[in-house]
Specification:
317 residues, alpha+beta, seven-stranded mixed sheet, four-stranded antiparallel sheet, 10 helices, 11 strands, binds L-homoserine
């Protein structure tokens, strides 16, 4: 191993839940995303040398940053505890924005480390290592952002221990309008507002919608996809924290979206659309609706569902 070797990787923004499938469905955009560069260092252990684009807010200590935790998991997984890795992170995604920012960093870190160390990790092992960085306070993981950031496309996550990612088909043209208002919500706080149990009648309707979404994707049945995009589990408890939620969703449907809701635990909202052209109009309508409740200047991102997922990129010259 040479101490000048470096590898850099990109991982995209993702939308967790896809409305109906709390913690089990996620999809990837093509861009934006985070980038991570990994280099060998002489001393064992993981060191984060810099995080760019976070306004100095993310911890730089490797054991407190998802990137450091994920790379340490790679070293442990491969029995390379004596190897030293130096990391630099470029955040393209907002902190606590509901766009899968920490998942993108963790996934880009694992992909960069795998390339640097030539460890040829399986996708299951990459999922496991990247998920370590995102363990919640109760030790739980919910890799509905990690899995699509890694694989691209639309992914179902079986919450086994370890989790299993099952890619789902992406109908031609399926596109996303993602709108990020200038707000932050911590995922752990937004999980804290959820009840521990839900009534059986709601559960029945919810698992019918999850199944309907899967069938809709396989059959390219746009009407079934549209009708499946309902969340009775998390959304009702989270809406009070997102000013303008109802107006933004109404504006997206009026502009031609198949369905709209929170991206992960919010505050970003997203809409699924049949075409990229629809997604452009829908994103503008959603941003305008946010402006109508005083949240001017929301960032909009429009992308076909990105099939590439995380990948190694060339460091800039
Ligand atoms: N599915 C998670 C939630 C967010 O809604 O709390 C992303 O993991």
């Amino acid at each position: 191993m040479s101490n000048t070797a470096a590898a850099r990787a990109f991982a995209p923004a993702t939308v967790g839940n896809i409305i109906c499938g709390f913690d089990i469905f996620g999809l990837a955009l093509g861009a934006p995303g985070d980038e991570v560069e990994a280099k060998l260092r002489d001393e064992p252990g993981v060191v984060i040398t810099a995080v760019h684009g976070d306004g100095g807010r993310l911890p730089i200590q490797a054991d407190r940053n998802v990137v450091g935790v994920a790379i340490n998991a790679v070293l442990t997984e491969c029995g390379l505890e004596n190897v030293g890795v130096e990391i630099e992170v470029w955040k393209g995604l907002p902190i606590s924005g509901g766009m899968g920012g920490s998942a993108a960093s963790a996934v880009a870190a694992v992909v960069a480390a795998d390339e640097l160390l030539q460890t040829r990790l399986s996708s299951e092992a990459m999922l496991r290592c990247a998920s370590e960085g995102e363990r919640g306070p109760k030790g739980d993981t919910h890799p509905d952002n990690i899995a699509p950031a890694l694989h691209g496309g639309i992914v179902m996550v079986r919450p086994d221990e370890p989790a299993i990612a099952i890619p789902l088909p992406v109908p031609d043209g399926l596109s996303v309008a993602l709108v990020h208002p200038d707000l932050e919500l911590e995922t752990n706080d937004m999980r804290g507002v959820l009840p521990d149990t839900i009534p059986l009648s709601k559960a029945v309707r919810q698992w019918a919608d999850c199944s309907a979404l899967v069938v809709g994707l396989y059959e390219e049945d746009w009407d079934l996809i549209r009708r499946a995009l309902v969340d009775r589990v998390a959304e009702p408890h989270r809406i009070p924290f997102i000013p303008g939620f109802g107006a933004v969703r109404a504006a997206s449907l009026e502009a031609g979206a198949l369905g709209a809701g929170l991206s992960g635990s919010g505050p970003s909202m997203f809409a699924l659309c049949r075409t990229i052209t629809d997604a452009r109009s829908v994103a503008s309508a959603m941003a305008e609706a946010f402006a109508g409740v005083g949240l001017e200047g929301a960032d909009t991102h429009v992308s076909e569902v990105g099939n590439t997922g995380a990948h190694v990129i060339k460091p800039p010259a």
